[in-house]
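Sanity check

After download, print the first record. It should look like this:
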Amino acid sequence: MPEVSAPEWDGFLSCFPDAHVLQTTAWGELKTAFGWQPVRLISHLPQGGRIGAQVLFRPLPFGLSLAYLPKGPIGEGQPDLGSSFWSPLWHEVDELCRARRAIFLKVEPDIWERPDQNLDRRAAPAGFRLGRQDIQPPRTLLVDLTGDEEAVLARMKQKTRYNIRLALKKGVLVSPSADFIAFHRLLMQTGQREDFGVHSLEYYRKAYELFYPRAECELFLAEFEGQPLAGLMVFARGSRAWYFYGASSEAHREKMPSYLLQWEAMRWARAHGCTTYDLWGVPDVDEQTLEAHFTSRSDGLWGVYRFKRGFGGQLRRAQGPWDRVYNPWLYALYCRWIAFRRPQE
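Expected structure tokens:
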């Protein structure tokens, strides 16, 4: 089985500078600290070249596990993961998952759906089933960072540009920080207000410790007169940047700190050579539905869509999730559990 070490995986990834941050060794180390076990595979193709994947395993009772492949696999060429091009890798992944008694493997590929693709007609590649549960938000907004700063601002909605300048005028200051206690306090406030889960303080600190030395992460705090008002963590790799974690307080909201915070994160991403900024998560519906209902809904990701839409990003949806099943009976129980809990969300 072609398992490789972390340094070997880093060497492989150096050939793919725009591979997703969730496939990096640093991300695997982050998940290791919180109960997952990463395994990295590289397969050599008969026609030459290499393809690979970082698979995360979550141990379960009785020696079972769950397997997860986030934003991969990685390789040059064909996006159709069901084609024969990927067969050598899937053969190795199957052996690995069976050896670790995985019930199933969930794959969320780093592939965008076509803009004209009908959501109701999605189909999984050969060897997979269309999954019933997403781990990462499938739909997002991608902000174009190309051109000069005025060009980036010009693509935003007028009200968003106004709010960025208002925050500056009102004395909001945004700067890099390592104050994770303040950031986590903001996250807890936002989680309670918006009803979403928050990781532990140690999780965010560990992510920073792993990615910051690589110049692939920054924590920004927006403050007014020394009081933290909002914060975010931005990640970057190659030409891509991602806004994964953000929070704000109720204090001084009229000063629009979150707008200036995002703008400074985008400026940081531009300085690191990024040309896209992924706002990471909007409701999983088409643009027409989003625009028709964002003023009347605030549940789930609807609560942040009104804010994110102002930055002028392009709506995109990732393919998947796709499940590769190894234990049909236990997988059926999992599907029943998903069906049972979904109406309650």
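If your output differs, re-run the checksum step. Summary of this record's structure: The longest strand covers residues 227-237.
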